[in-house]
Design a protein that fits this description.
Oligomer: heterodimer
Distance between the termini of chain A: 35 Å
Shape of chain A: globular
Radius of gyration of chain B: 40 Å
Largest sheet of chain B: 8 strands, antiparallel, barrel
Structural class of chain B: alpha+beta
Number of strands of chain B: 25
Order of helices and strands of chain A: EEEEEEEEEEEEEEE
Order of helices and strands of chain B: EEEEEEEEEEEEEEEHHEEEEEEEEEEH
Strand content of chain A: over 45%
Shape of chain B: rod-shaped
Largest interface: A-B, 35 and 35 residues
Number of helices of chain A: 0
Number of strands of chain A: 15
Strand order of the largest sheet of chain A: 7-8-9-10-15-14-13-12
Helix content of chain B: 10-25%
Number of helices of chain B: 3
Largest sheet of chain A: 8 strands, antiparallel, barrel
Radius of gyration of chain A: 17 Å
Strand content of chain B: over 45%
Helix content of chain A: under 10%
């Protein structure tokens, strides 16, 4: 864990995960990039006034009997709505991504692709692709835009940046995802789970619920 | 500190206050006052389209009602009045929301209710297949058609469209149903769980009468399947036990109460018969009696009209037996036909002293022969077994028929 003073307001900014290079100051909402010894200010992050997500920074949960804490989030908008990707920091220092959209939850982990990846133009829904030894079916291909980020993240979160997102599924629970941004492709693999599977603690308290 | 998901603003068209219950997630809401569809994007409100007139549609479960259904609390936030393309078959869909569990649908068609969850994680589904497999269950195609949205109330996590027409299809595996909706190049699959009207009624505290259930729902679980499964093995075992018991009684019977050899001699006139009478013998219990005629005939026949006569009351039980036996050699070797012994059973003969009176007629070629008359008691009549089996099969047959009719009614509505 590393701790820095925010160059904008002086508040303490914590980096729990070693992969994190970006953070939003919890106090003044400045976007900050981590360099070796100090933080650099990129600007202010505009956070939404209304947020219906039941999760928040600091929410704890378990996945396969391993405890994690949500330490960062990036929201992605698409033409039909939005979803959130939460950085789950495990007690053993592993990093996972908990995706949440309209009550659907999945936990996935980034994996290096063993073979060259298909280009996004070569994919279409219902098609099958082999990735790292698993046969996936393409369920959805959509363009999305980064809306905002908060907490700490392993990349520089630039609101307004567009990327292509491909949803994949194998069997009835295995989830896969390909993300195309800046000419690079990232591959994630995990599974769909129910809210109750995570035994969440410190979820948002929502009035009346 | 608790954050509120509720937000209120004024309709950009008519100025009436509009409440949204899932602020931050809801992308469109219908103004209850002017029936405008209002799009919501980052606190900006704009009219998407508008119904020509406000229709007084009153959902059975009003928007804003909360209830606990299938282990979680849900609030009704949206309502769709839908039908097939021509508008002949209407149904109603309630959008349910729980901030932690997400969205569900409660669908009511002909008084049958479904609790519907969208499926994200599926592979191998196809709208063209007749059968689908999901989570270890096989689903059969029930129908495929088009669905129109006729009227909308409340709020939704997408931008609602007026007169939305989509392709829909259902696959059933009671109590579940898999459904697809295909429109705008995207297929959405969902799984429905058949939910009893009484469950919906108590979950949402519905005080108005529930819509009457018409026919059998596509995925309504048959009450007769478990009844049939429960009774079929018991029935089989009961019938098998009876048959075994019958065979056991038959095989172990040893109750010869009379046996005697008589002689037949061809009478002077042909055709003609001779008569013989047996001495009296005792029949102890009320039971069936078997009278057996044995004659060593070969390539001839002996007809016996035997009366079993009660020596006290004169009650007579007549029976007729023909002993015939033919045999010989032909190109295929030895052959034979018939039997040198015949027997007949009289059921429920009261106890008492009896005798046999027999009138015999034989093949005219037969000059004389010895023959035996034998009487057994304690014979289990096959009719008793048949009646018992029929009685045992009565209830299972009704259950089987009800189960069959239930499935026929279900599939009568399919396409």
């Amino acid at each position: 864990m590393l701790e820095y003073p925010c160059p904008a307001c002086g508040a303490s900014v914590v980096f729990q995960s070693s992969i994190s290079v970006f953070a939003v100051c919890p106090f003044c909402k400045s976007s900050l990039v981590r360099h070796d010894l100090k933080l650099e200010t990129l600007g202010k992050m505009a956070l939404p006034i209304r947020d219906a997500s039941p999760l928040q920074l600091g929410t704890e949960g378990t996945y396969q009997q391993r405890h994690f804490t949500l330490i960062g989030r990036v929201r992605k908008d698409w033409s039909g709505g939005h979803w959130d990707e939460w950085l789950a920091f495990f007690d053993d220092s592993a990093n996972g991504w908990l995706a949440e959209a309209q009550g659907f939850y999945s936990m996935c982990f980034q994996e290096a692709l063993q073979e060259s990846s298909p280009t996004v133009d070569s994919l279409c829904p219902d098609q099958y692709v082999n990735l790292n030894g698993t046969t996936f079916q393409v369920t959805d291909i959509k363009s999305c835009t980064c809306h905002f980020g908060e907490g700490e993240l392993p990349f520089i979160c630039e609101p307004g940046k567009t990327m292509m997102s491909v949803d994949l599924v194998s069997g009835s629970e295995t989830f896969g995802g390909l993300e195309y941004a800046d000419g690079e492709v990232s591959f994630f693999q995990g599974e769909y789970l129910k809210f109750s599977d995570f035994n969440f603690k410190r979820v948002r308290v929502l009035e009346g619920w | 500190m608790a954050d509120s998901l509720v937000s209120t603003f004024n309709c950009p068209n008519c100025g009436s206050p509009v409440t949204i219950r899932v602020a931050g997630q809801t992308l469109s809401v219908m103004c209850p006052a002017c029936a405008s569809a209002i799009g919501i994007e980052n606190e900006n409100y704009q009219i998407l389209w508008k119904y020509e007139q406000v229709v007084d549609v009153k959902p059975l479960i009003p928007i804003g009602t909360r209830g606990k259904l299938h282990a979680a609390d849900y609030e009704v936030i949206g309502f769709l009045l839908r039908s097939d393309e021509k508008g002949n078959y209407p149904w109603r869909e309630y959008l349910l929301f729980n901030p932690y569990e997400g969205f569900r649908w409660l669908v009511e068609a002909d008084g049958h209710w479904s609790f519907v969850t969208m499926i994200k994680s599926q592979s191998g589904f196809s709208m063209s297949k007749r059968y689908l497999y999901y989570q270890g269950e096989g689903y059969s195609r029930f129908l495929a058609g088009k669905a129109r949205t006729n009227y909308i109330l409340g709020e939704f996590y997408w931008k609602v469209e007026a007169n939305d027409l989509v392709a829909v299809g259902d696959y059933v595996s009671p109590p579940h149903m898999l459904s697809y909706e295909f429109g705008d190049g995207e297929v959405v699959w969902s799984q429905a769980l058949y939910t009893e009207p009484s469950v919906v009624r108590s979950a949402f505290n519905v005080t108005a009468p529930m819509p009457v259930r018409l026919g059998v729902g596509p995925h309504q679980p048959s009450p007769w399947i478990s009844a049939w499964d429960g009774i079929k093995w018991k029935t089989g075992m009961a019938v098998a036990l009876l048959v075994i018991l019958h065979i056991f009684i038959y095989v172990t019977r040893d109750t010869t109460i009379f046996a005697q050899t008589f002689n037949y001699t061809k009478p002077a006139t042909t055709p003609g018969a001779i008569e013989v009478e047996s001495p009296s013998f005792e029949h102890k219990d009320l039971s069936a009696i078997e009278v057996e005629v044995q004659a060593p005939v070969n390539n001839s026949w002996l007809d016996a009209d035997v009366d079993l006569v009660n020596t006290k009351t004169g009650a007579t039980f007549p029976l007729s037996e023909e002993v015939s036996f033919y045999s010989g050699y032909d190109g295929d070797g030895y052959w034979s036909e018939g039997d040198q012994s015949q027997s007949a059973i009289i059921a429920s003969v009261p106890p008492g002293a009896y005798m046999l009176r027999a009138e015999l007629e034989a093949d005219p070629k037969l000059a004389s022969t010895a023959f035996n008359l034998i009487v057994h008691q304690g014979i289990p009549p096959i009719g008793n077994l048949a009646v018992a089996v029929l009685l045992i099969l009565f209830a299972p047959a009704i259950i089987f028929w009800r189960k069959y009719s239930f499935e026929s009614a279900r599939w009568a509505e399919s396409s």
